[in-house]
Amino acid sequence: MLSLMMKSESDDPYNDQHDDPDKKSSDHMEKRRIANSNERRRMQNINAGFESLRAQLSLSEGQKYSKASILQHAAQHLEDIQKELSVYQQQVKVYETAKLSCTCGSFNNQADNQESKVSEKVGDIIIIQ
After folding, report:
1. d(CA 82, CA 47)
2. How far, in Å, CA of 56 to CA of 43, rounded?
3. What is the pLDDT of residues 2-43, one digit of tens each?
4. Could you write out the three-class secondary structure of the chain?
5. Is 45 left (phi over 0), alpha (psi -120 to 50) or beta?
6. In sequence order, what are the beta bridge partners of 117?
7. What is the pTM of this model?
8. Residue 68: how many other CB atoms lie within 10 Å
9. Which of 15, 16, 20, 23 is deepest in the core (most CB within 10 A)?
10. Which of 94, 76, 73 lies closest to 84, judged by CA?
């Protein structure tokens, strides 16, 4: 003879009908506490990053700046630096072009402000002392 055993609903781990409401509430509160703690830490990290960025931009400490304002100042600062870099790169090109085309026979040595003399010229290469 085959005997069938029926499981009660309370034995079913997927049945939430008979869970203790206080336990569910306690679990939910613990999850919320952890989530709130994580969010608080995330916001503290973001705020610390904005404070660091504000300090790098040399914005006055006495004045309050919104996060959007700090980002706008940072974007403007980066744009200014890119323009300055472009100017310096152009100056380097001009200097290199002038240096390559110089056939005057001597160069001004900036290290010791003494004029160097050409000791030998081989083709387009000038050897200086």
Report:
1. 27
2. 20
3. 455 555 545 555 555 556 777 788 999 999 999 999 999 999
4. CCCCCCCCHHHCCCCCCCCCHHHHHHHHHHHHHHHHHHHHHHHHHHHHHHHHHHHHCCCCCCCCCCHHHHHHHHHHHHHHHHHHHHHHHHHHHHHHHHHHHCCCCEEEECCCCEEEEEEEEECCEEEEC
5. alpha
6. 106
7. 0.54
8. 8
9. 15
10. 76
> Which residue has tokens 């472009």?
86
Tell me how far CA of residue 122 lies from CA of 10, 46, 99, 116, 117, in angstroms: 99, 62, 17, 17, 15
118 neighbors 127 (Cβ within 8 angstroms) = yes
Summarize pLDDT for 43-101 with one digit per residue, the tens: 999 999 999 999 999 888 889 999 999 999 999 999 999 999 999 999 998 888 887 77
Residue with tokens 């630096």: 81
